[in-house]
Design brief:
Layout lengths: L2 E6 L5 H10 L4 E5 L2 E6 L1 H10 L5 E10 L3 H9 L15 E6 L6 H20 L13 E6 L2 E7 L21 H10 L7 E4 L6 H11 L19 H14 L7 E5 L2 H14 L5 E5 L12 E5 L4 H4 L3 H16 L5 E6 L4 H5 L5 E7 L2 E8 L6
Parallel strand pairs: 5-6, 8-9, 8-11, 9-10, 11-12
Antiparallel strand pairs: 1-3, 1-4, 2-3, 4-7, 6-7, 12-14, 13-14
Helix pairs in contact: 2-7, 3-4, 5-6
């Protein structure tokens, strides 16, 4: 079956997501903020859920149309081939979003879409009431600039939930964002990767998984595994392929933190993720770490106000002291993500490159220091 699939992501990760979709062998159709549409088939549903490291969810795009009125939304939805996916006994709840569009009431849109799908299925199955006791197909609508897209969620639990972080600290970073930061830091086997404020270890673990070739979805389940039109064998073969791609590596990761509980949590999470032998967690103050006599890259997510509720004075003092010490580790490269608008001034050096990203809904900036020096 030819399918249009939509992979969603955090704002700022569209390029990385598009590249890994193409690495799986699929053709991109379009890219907008937070989502990439591509062509695939039933196997693509399984492979994209198992292998996409930067996606939040993968959807089947049922169709799209212009909708400025509820009547247009109803008729456009009703005309789509819902019976190709949803059986007479299946459940089909509806949720969605509307941005910069005439139809801005989400509850009203949900009700209209639900009624339209019922009408469409009634025409195929010849019944008026649906028990909704079978397989669950989560329908999601997305209306942007009066253009409606109707989709079915194949992921279920969001893809950033890999399964290894069953416990976390007070302000965890999404695994998808941590993977992106690790990727952008260009991890290499001959360069030590060090997160000196590791928290629950997400950045360190994602870097280690990437270098070992561990697929992010290899150890979890997905909603579409219950869809009868996707053969179960495709999920089995996708997981077998994921296992075959895993490899040994000489890559080394240090994950340190001043908080012993955070270090213990990192060790626990790394073991669950299958990288406990790569990630080395230990207690240390980020302002006192040493070069270890090797080339290294610091990649870290220091505390900031919105994230931990710490005082501005504490955060800014940390940034000043951190900047002075990190520059003493030259020529190590440094990657820091924070939402603080005055970070470069406090750090004491302008970044060589700055990239805007989002930690959930918090806008942040990844400050990249390629030419770290003591000035």
């Amino acid at each position: 079956m030819k399918l249009q699939l939509v992979a969603t992501c955090l704002f700022g990760l569209e390029k990385l997501l598009g590249e890994e979709i193409e690495e799986l062998g699929y053709e991109r159709i379009s890219t907008i903020d937070g989502r990439v549409t591509f062509l695939g088939d039933e196997e693509a549903v399984a492979l994209s859920n198992v292998f996409l490291r930067f996606a939040e969810r993968v959807y089947i795009r049922v169709g799209g149309f212009h909708a400025e009125t509820f009547d247009e939304l109803f008729e456009g939805t009703k005309a789509l081939p819902w019976a190709d996916f949803i059986g007479a006994a299946d459940a089909f709840p509806v949720k969605g979003h509307s941005i910069k569009s005439e139809l801005h009431s989400i509850p009203d849109c949900q009700s209209i879409v639900k009624k339209a799908v019922v009408d469409s299925l009634s025409g195929r199955y010849g019944i008026a009431r649906f028990p909704e006791t079978g397989t669950k197909y989560q329908i999601e609508f997305f209306i942007l600039n009066n253009e409606a897209t109707l989709m079915i969620d194949t992921s279920g639990v969001p893809l950033h939930k890999r399964g290894y972080r069953r416990e976390s600290n007070a302000a965890p970073m999404r695994e998808t964002l941590a993977a992106a930061i690790a990727k952008l830091s260009r991890p290499r086997e001959d360069v030590l990767f060090w997160d000196p404020m590791c928290g629950s270890g997400t950045i360190a673990i994602e870097a280690a998984m990437m270098m070992r070739g561990i697929a992010p979805g290899a150890r979890r389940s997905f909603a579409a595994e219950e869809f009868p039109f996707i053969p179960r064998g495709l999920w089995k073969s996708a997981r077998e392929e994921a296992k075959e791609r895993e490899t040994d590596t000489r890559f080394r990761v240090y994950a340190s933190d001043i908080d012993r509980a955070a270090v213990e949590l990192t060790a626990h999470n790394a073991d669950i993720a299958g990288v406990g032998d790569i990630v080395n967690p230990f207690v240390a103050d980020c302002r006192k770490i040493r070069e270890e006599g090797v080339r290294g890259t610091i990649v870290t997510n220091p505390p900031y106000g919105e994230r931990i509720g710490g005082s501005t004075e504490e955060v800014e003092r940390l940034y000043r002291e951190m900047g002075a010490h990190f520059r003493s580790l030259a020529p190590w490269q440094v990657y820091v993500i924070t939402s603080h608008p005055g970070f470069e001034r406090l750090y004491g050096k302008r970044a060589d490159k700055v990239r805007k990203l989002y930690n959930g809904m918090i806008p942040c900036y990844l400050y990249q220091f390629f030419k770290n020096d003591k000035k």
